[in-house]
Amino acid sequence: MLRFLILFSLFIHSCVAAPKAPAAAAALPTKKWLTLNGQEPGVVARGGISGLFPESCALANDLAISSSSPGLTILCNLQMTSDGAGICLPDIRLDNATTISTLFPKGQKTYKVNGQDLKGWFALDYSADTIFSNVSLVQNIYSRPSIFDGELPISAVEDVLGIKPPKFWLSVQNDAFYMEHKLSPAEYLRSLGFRGITFISSPEIGFLKSIGRDAVMSKTKLIFEFKDPEAMEPTTNKKYSEILQNLAAIKAFASGVLVPKGYIWPIDTAKYLKPATTLVADAHKAGLEVYASGFSNDMPASFNYSYDPSAEYLQFVDNGQFSVDGVVTDFPPTASQAISCFSHQKGNLPKAGHALVITHNGASGDYPGCTDLAYQKAVEDGADVIDCSVQMSKDGIAFCHDSADLTVSSTAMATFMSRATSVPEIQPTNGVFSFDLTWAEIQSLKPQIQSPFIAKVGISRNPANKNAGKFVTLDDFLKFSKEKAVTGVLNAAYLASKKGLGIVDAVKSALTKSTLDKQTTQRVLIQSDDSSVLAGFEAVPPYTRVLSIDKEIGDAPKASVDEIKKHADAVNILRSSLVSISGSFAAGKTNVVEEMHKGNISVYVSVLRNEYISIAFDYFSDPTVEFATFIAGNGVDGVITEFPATASRYLRSPCSDLNKEQPYAILPAEAGALISVANKEAQPPASAPNPPLDAKDVIDPPLPPVANMAANNATGATPNAPGHSGSIATTANLCLSLLAILAMGLLFATD
Fold it and tell me: Which of 112, 425, 564, 685 gives a 20 to 30 Å CA spacing to 543?
């Protein structure tokens, strides 16, 4: 255990924010809150950071206090042993959160709890000594880290009080059950003298009334907890929905209520928000505080939040109509940043750093990618750069689409199944390709939102927008970019040599037509994984050329950097080339950004998404912490994301500026710190390091000339397309990305 605590102290020191001095907070503008008392909503950590560690273990509580805003409340769910000791565990049954069923395989029993028969291993059947000496904790939600299972002891209530949390909340769920078995939670609390206990909550009215006088004397707040609306409250035998109708009566024995978040913002069967109830306003009118429970980064609630957990907290504390007085969460750092950093963040605030927010197919997390609506949403969300991957139609119209194959992101397969073909140079499977359809035929298709995790874990993106928007031509995209914000697009050898379609020429023509090639107020970025494509734009000074490196690398030797500098001013690199991942943990950090910066090459990282399944445990399953890790931790010059709103909000928050004195800061995670806390035997096997970037992978052969299709058709000849010499740039890639940045965005980047 000593090794554990030493490692953990290093982990805490390296990756969490220490609260700043109160004097620094005085310099910040005062926020006006719509809570009962006008104060900032509280953050209540359910068992510490139980989204990472087993609930209420010492590590979970310590990390919660160190990584959350000042004034954090630690919550312990009280269970009682046969000899009257109080322990912190999530459920009256121990088998889902501890190793007890393995140690005592014959200990399963059935008890009637609140009128229902429950089968399992119960704390009241074991003495405190038996539990503390033999039983250890496990993570009770299977999608969360399991490498700490069996390593951590169960915490007594006194253990948690002993670390002196800023505030302490004791949840007493089953007083009637324990009283039936001659164990008294009330007497246990009196033995503690109620010392250090800020809140006591219970779903049982009789229990709260029984300790009312003690609570008043100790200045402990009593909170009545609502369960499922149709469940029965044990003391009154009334449904909780019925009790809800008379909040004034609750004020007689409690100072607040704790409700599942659906009591406040209900969600319909399609997972969209319904109108808010009047519960918060009614409770405040009755003089009751309102605490909402059920918040968790890795359990998506509503499509309205775009898989951004901070957006959900803001819905409860900063909606302009009301604010809850506190939130109970498994991930208190995320709640802290939402309340302390993002609330009341109105208007287009200047960014704290130089990093650019670059879209991947527009705001493709909310709308079908490369559509007018995806681009409009990206601009509204504060993107500095919007991107357009250029494809060509059969009749030579350049338009925006992520791939030459239209089957994944449109209804092409259903509409033009007979036109599906095999193009091995592009992909191993059949597809319906843009260069085989006219623009009019492409316009007849419905866009289709892409959900990258639907097959793996069933996580889909906004179904209400599944087929929303329309594809746009390159000309229209550039016109929109010039008026609003930014732009992007590109080419490949296959179309030029075999289909007689020259994307590079089409892009140049479109840029000239839009006059962006003569602009000094807007910077244009041209991106490709092909150095020969970038060479085609070398003669136009306003263009910034970006080399896309589509394979994982672990180092950038000087020779490779020097070769890149001949062709590009910046690189687009996979996030796994900057931070290596092992078993969903951030295992290590490379020096690629530093090496590129030595060569005066900017670094953009891609692709960042909001869905928790794509985010390392070290980032608290929170996309904001991932952005902070790459921007503040790795020093990238831009992030490429499908959810620009999340990145923009982080960069426009004062908490992203680590040089600024403030009560709370969003710090980057330290790669390797979290995984090192676990026993070596429990850690996932280390992955082989990524290879260094080879200079020869940067060099590509010249582009083939655009084929004369009329002559080829007359002779029946089929020109051969030369292949790439490097392993990165291949003929399979048909994309050339062009990005235009709004002048104001550049001002933010350079201020």
Answer: 425
